[in-house]
Amino acid sequence: MPRRLEKSGFWVWVTAVVFYPIAWLGKTTVHGAENVRREGGVLLVMNHISHLDPPVDAVFVHRNGRVPRFLAKDSLFRTPVFKRMISGAGSIPVYRASAAAGDSLVAAREALRDGKLIVIYPEGTITRDPDGWPMRSRTGVARLAMECLEHDIPVLTVARWGTRDIFNAYTKKFRPFPRKKITIDVSAPVDLSEFKGRDLDNDLLREVTVFLMTRVREQLTGLRDEQAPEEFYNPARAKKKSTGTDG
Questions:
Q1: Percentage helix, strand, coil for the chain under 3-state DSSP, each rounded to 5
Q2: What was the pLDDT predicted at 231?
């Protein structure tokens, strides 16, 4: 169990009761866990490869004495029972392509300033890269990172590998046994000072997003001991190529 767990409520413990057995499906090893400070705001920027990621990541954070608060698709908050768990535990719904799309970032910024730990998957969903590498990401992570820079809140990049070996959403293969190895690598706080003082325009947001996800990809390269692709997989571009409409 975690040591010096920050103050939590009923739904955090209910979620823990559900998530710990799920996380047990893998043998998880964490490198750099000491970089997750025990109090104060923290932003964790992570890759996303399987539906098992949130339980595994939540348990990793919880074992380090923190309550994880996820930025999650709003559809999850409409699922009976599950919506009570994640909303009660403090997760934040993301309403895409709607008038409320920016509300999630406002809530996340407030949570960070209030000393909470936020987990974000910048890709927005499980990567569509056939080999599991991070794909082109959304720039919401850059907005949060710049908020962290302004308020001296640490931003940590985190790579995780192994969950897809247990459950691959795209092939629908679920292989819990024998238990698979899951490895998580947590960076030291990222130095974002080179972006300080610049206008928060689309160019900067894309640059910061690529900067952060490139770090995640580099960490993942170390975990996989494989060479990563030079570019991030772009689902829209791949679709155009498959239909013969590219260029």
A1: 40, 20, 40
A2: 96
Query: Does residue 234 register a pLDDT over 70?
Result: yes
Query: Is the overall model pTM greater than 0.90, yes or no?
Result: yes
Report the distance separating Cα 8 and Cα 15, nearest Å: 11
Statement: 34-239 belongs to CATH 3.40.1110.10: no
Identify the CA nearest to 60 among candidates 46, 39, 77: 46
The domain ranges of the chain are: 34-239
Read off the amino acid at residue 149.
Answer: L
Find the DSSP H helices in the chain. 10-23, 53-63, 82-88, 103-113, 140-150, 163-166, 202-224, 235-243
Quick check: helix, strand or coil at residue 11? helix
CA distances from 196 to 134, 188, 199 (A): 26, 19, 9
